[in-house]
Automatic annotation (TrEMBL):
<dbReference type="InterPro" id="IPR051370">
    <property type="entry name" value="PPIase_Pin1"/>
</dbReference>
<dbReference type="InterPro" id="IPR046357">
    <property type="entry name" value="PPIase_dom_sf"/>
</dbReference>
<keyword id="KW-0697">Rotamase</keyword>
<dbReference type="GO" id="GO:0060255">
    <property type="term" value="P:regulation of macromolecule metabolic process"/>
</dbReference>
<dbReference type="Pfam" id="PF00397">
    <property type="entry name" value="WW"/>
</dbReference>
<dbReference type="InterPro" id="IPR000297">
    <property type="entry name" value="PPIase_PpiC"/>
</dbReference>
<dbReference type="GO" id="GO:0005829">
    <property type="term" value="C:cytosol"/>
</dbReference>
<dbReference type="GO" id="GO:0080090">
    <property type="term" value="P:regulation of primary metabolic process"/>
</dbReference>
<dbReference type="Pfam" id="PF00639">
    <property type="entry name" value="Rotamase"/>
</dbReference>
<dbReference type="InterPro" id="IPR036020">
    <property type="entry name" value="WW_dom_sf"/>
</dbReference>
<keyword id="KW-0413">Isomerase</keyword>
<feature type="domain" description="WW">
    <location>
        <begin position="9"/>
        <end position="30"/>
    </location>
</feature>
<dbReference type="InterPro" id="IPR001202">
    <property type="entry name" value="WW_dom"/>
</dbReference>
<dbReference type="GO" id="GO:0005634">
    <property type="term" value="C:nucleus"/>
</dbReference>
<dbReference type="GO" id="GO:0003755">
    <property type="term" value="F:peptidyl-prolyl cis-trans isomerase activity"/>
</dbReference>
<feature type="domain" description="PpiC">
    <location>
        <begin position="42"/>
        <end position="175"/>
    </location>
</feature>
<protein>
    <recommendedName>
        <fullName>Peptidyl-prolyl cis-trans isomerase</fullName>
        <ecNumber>5.2.1.8</ecNumber>
    </recommendedName>
</protein>
Length: 175
């Protein structure tokens, strides 16, 4: 997990949000119980997530009952990599750049809105129909790696790729 804010100095200390690319002079507070959330002692969290399954997932079918045939590495690339691809029109108009899901979210003006749209369009989990919203959950209700990542995030912070038996996730904490 990466820290959401970075402290920078240019004669005066300011705080730079690595996720939103915004800077502020005052130390930001994150949510109502900021110190409690940052210490990971909250009882419940609410997150959005995007799940990309692979053929090694514990249930390699998506919520549409389609069999997943991609490898774990292909699933990871879908989340993280920027790469060039060609289609039948590329000969005439050049190549296209595919931006990975994580980069698309990080570069957006409204991270939560973009996260929700991508979850609806691309998540292999049935929660995609709810824009990836898993509602509130407590400890011991999710797979361990997913739970640990969710509780470690501050509100409005996005995780790195989280690997679980279900597949590869990115998580965005909303409460």
């Amino acid at each position: 997990m990466s820290c959401q804010f970075e402290v920078l100095e240019t004669g005066k200390v300011y705080y730079f949000n690595q996720l939103t690319k915004e800077s502020v002079w005052e130390k930001p507070s994150i949510g109502k119980n900021s110190s409690k959330q940052q210490q990971g002692t909250t009882d419940k969290v609410r997150v959005l997530h995007i799940l990309i399954k692979h053929k090694g997932s514990r249930n390699p079918t998506n919520y549409k009952k389609e069999t997943i045939t991609r490898s774990k590495e292909e699933a990871r690339k879908q989340l993280e990599r920027k790469h060039l691809y060609f289609d039948k029109f590329s000969f005439y108009i050049g190549c296209f750049v595919y931006i990975g899901i994580i980069e698309e979210i990080q570069e957006s003006d409204d991270i939560e809105k973009t996260f929700r749209r991508i979850a609806l369009e691309k998540s292999d989990c049935s929660s995609g129909a709810r824009e990836g919203d898993l509602n509130y959950f407590g400890r011991k209700q999710m797979q361990q790696s997913f739970e640990e990542a969710s509780f470690a995030l501050a509100v409005n912070e996005m995780s790195d790729i989280v690997d679980s038996d279900s597949g590869l996730h990115i998580i965005y904490r909303i409460a």
